[in-house]
Amino acid sequence: MRIKSRKMKIGLWIAVVLSVGLATGANALETKPALTEVNQSGGYQVGDAAASFRLKNTDGNMVSLNDFTNAKGVIVIFTSNHCPFAKAYEDRMIALNNKFASQGYPVIAINPSDPGTHQDDTFEKMKERAAAKSYGYPYLVDESQQVAKAFGAGRTPQVYILQKSGGKFTVRYIGMIDDNPQDPAGVSKLYADEAVSNLLGGKPVVTTTTKPVGCAIKWKN
How far apart are CA 73 and CA 167, in angstroms? Predict the structure, then answer.
């Protein structure tokens, strides 16, 4: 009986050790996807200084972030020709530039969309669109998609408001232009407008991030 009892105790001890080991292994596996997801998100966060970039404008000239030396900041908007959300926001993008460019915060529109996926996003189509709508701001092609990746953009349209201070362009807002992509008349929160107005008034931005709503950027292989 003693031998049998001892064997049972040993069996229970082995079972406990194995269950703890399996649980620990399972927990380790569970953490890996989360870590991978964080690592893949990348891009700038609010408070980061944005690196300069140099991209071709629809007028054929090269435009760099460093060209805006006299600006107080810039409103960088990743957008595209084909996306219905970008089209719905187009007039509001023009309105943002009309309102804030003269106050030191011009719009810089950047198209990172792969024209191999959507023919409307070719450089020729970009030029046609900029001319048809009389854009008063640069419309740049991010052919390599490296600028979009550096910023961490994932959708069009997606806004990054940068404040210039001490020779650096610091990210102060990331996200949506406003809270109603479908209906301009139904907008209740003017996120981009309010962020720039806060900065111009010498105040901190109240809402610093929102979740962008739009078309997912199609990355090249």
Answer: 11
Angle at 167 between CA 164 and CA 170, to 5 degrees: 40
| Block residue for tokens 């962020």 | 195
pLDDT in tens, 110-159: 999 999 999 999 999 999 999 999 999 999 999 999 999 999 999 999 99
Model pTM score: 0.81
List the structure tokens of 148. Answer: 């979009």
Is residue 126 located within the same domain as residue 73? yes
Question: What does the CA dihedral 61, 64, 66, 69 come to, rounded to 10 degrees?
Answer: 50
**β-strand pairing of 49-50 with 168-175:** antiparallel
Verify that 71 and 121 share a domain, yes or no: yes
Here the CATH number for the domain that contains residue 96 is: 3.40.30.10
> Is residue 80 one of the residues assigned to a domain?
yes
Alpha-carbon distance of 159 to 162, in angstroms, equals: 10
CA distance readout (Å), 75 to 26, 61, 67, 107, 203:
45, 19, 14, 5, 17
**For residues 179, 48, 96 and 164, what is the CA-based torsion angle, rounded to 10 degrees?**
150
